[in-house]
Amino acid sequence: MSDKRVNVIWFEDLTRRDVALVGGKNSSLGEMVRQLGQKGIRVPSGFATTADAYRAYLTANGLDARIDDVIGQWQDHRIALHEAGSRVRAMILAGDWPGEIEADILQSYRDLSRRAGVADLPVAVRSSATAEDLPDASFAGQQETYLNVRGEKAVLTACRSCYASLFTDRAISYRQMKGFGHAKVALSIGVQRMVRSDTGGSGVMFSIDTESGFDRIALINAAWGLGENVVQGAVNPDEYQVYKPFLGAQNVTPIVGKRLGAKEIKMIYANRQGGETRNVPTSKAERAAWVLSDAEILDLARMAVTIETHYGQPMDMEWARDGDTGELFIVQARPETVQSRADAGAIKSYTVRKAGKTLLSGLSVGSAVAAGRVCILESARDIDRFVDGSILVTSTTDPDWVPIMKRASAIVTDHGGRTSHAAIVSRELGLPAIVGTGTATHILHDEQEVTVSCAGGGEGVIYEGIARFDVEDLRIDDLPKTRTQIMLNMANPSAAFRWWRLPCDGVGLARMEFVINNAIKVHPMALVHFDRLTDQAAKAEIARMTKAYSDKTEFFVDGLARGLSQIAAVVYPKPVIVRMSDFKTNEYAELLGGREFEPHEENPMIGLRGASRYYSPQYEEGFALECKAILRLRKEMGFDNVVVMIPFCRTPLEADRVLQVMEKHGLKRGKDGLEVYVMGEIPANVILAEDFARRFDGFSIGSNDLTQLTLGVDRDSEELAALFDESDPAVLWMIESLIARAHKAGAKVGLCGQAPSNDPAFARLLVKAGIDSISVSPDSFVAVKRHVALAEGVASPGDVVPKV
Question: What is the pLDDT of residues 33-52, one digit of tens each?
Answer without folding.
Answer: 999 999 999 999 999 999 99
